[in-house]
Amino acid sequence: MSERLVLVADDAGIRRITVNRPDKLNALNADTLDALQTAFDEAAADAAVRVVVLTGAGPKAFVAGADIAEMADLRPTEGRDFSLRGQKLMRTIETLPKPVIAMVNGFALGGGLELAMGCHLRIAADSAKVGQPEINLGLIPGFGGSQRLLRLAGRSATLELCLLGTPITAERALQLGIVTRVVPAAELEAETLKIATQLAASAPLALRATLDVVNIGGECGIEEGLQYESAQFGLMFATDDMREGTRAFVERRKPAFTGH
Ligand code: COA
């Protein structure tokens, strides 16, 4: 089941995870959430994986949201459990010890935008549309969208997107800080792979420390954040990769990082 709903492929340290329900615009039902959870747990545990690229199958959608048909008959406690299941996945992605890039190849609506916002970088096709349209269903975001959008783009944009429910263009999402970059749709794959290749060759422990300090720093005061940054900075001096990176600079050659 999980193989069909989510495809996993490896190439030179880059793990590509593809949500694979193109006939339903990759809507997230419970089984797909579970398959994604497994895929990300495995990516976290596998040292050969340096970076993850997450995308949706087919030409139209990254992910068009949580599965509306599956949600239609849920009772309150089941709705809460569905929300917790989605939130757990997004948090797993956000706190993964390696970078995750969302390759936003089309609609990223509701749970789809929430999934993309759990990722560390969002590269969007210029044709993509993003939004939190749950209000049109008498719902609110349930996979962390209200909280991550608030942190990414602020109160004004969050209230606009969540109250009106109207999707916005990739370009507007870029202006609001919701996506990292917008590229022509025809170049999405190549541009994303270029970034993934750069990250795959980068120093894994420093990448991890960067993700850690940003994740922790986003949730604590400046003093604690600065303390944590210096502790992580100091820790880097215990790594082979830091010696290699600084020596390679002095010797005017490209560093070869090993993750040690
Ligand atoms: N949940 C379940 N099924 C979904 C879905 C979702 N979130 N989004 C799309 N689908 C299904 C459609 O029901 C349709 O299935 P069918 O062919 O068996 O009827 C199929 O995917 C194609 O979608 P369709 O609506 O025909 O495509 P479109 O190009 O006309 O419209 C969208 C595209 C994205 C505008 C439209 O599908 C949509 O509004 N989706 C819901 C978005 C949403 O509200 N997401 C938040 C959910 S909390």
List the topology elements.
Elements: H1 2-5, E1 6-11, E2 14-19, H2 30-45, E3 51-56, E4 61-63, H3 68-71, H4 76-94, E5 100-104, E6 107-109, H5 111-118, E7 121-125, E8 129-131, H6 145-164, E9 168-169, H7 170-175, E10 181-183, H8 188-200, H9 204-217, H10 222-236, H11 240-250
Parallel strand pairs: 2-3, 3-5, 4-6, 5-7, 6-8, 7-10
Antiparallel strand pairs: 1-2, 8-9
Bound molecules: coenzyme A.
The site of coenzyme A (COA) has 16 residues, from helix 3 and strand 6.
**Order of strands in the sheet with most strands:** 1-2-3-5-7-10
Parts with pLDDT < 50 across at least 5 consecutive residues = none
Number of helices: 11
CATH 2nd-level architecture of the largest domain: Alpha-Beta Complex
Q: Care to count the β-strands?
A: 10
CATH class of the largest domain: Alpha Beta
Mean pLDDT, as a whole number?
Answer: 97
CATH homology group of the largest domain: 2-enoyl-CoA Hydratase, Chain A, domain 1
* Helical/strand content category: alpha/beta
N to C succession of SSEs: HEEHEEHHEEHEEHEHEHHHH
| Global Rg | 19 Å
Total of domains: 2
**Rough outline:** globular
CATH fold description of the largest domain: 2-enoyl-CoA Hydratase, Chain A, domain 1
List ligands, each type once.
coenzyme A
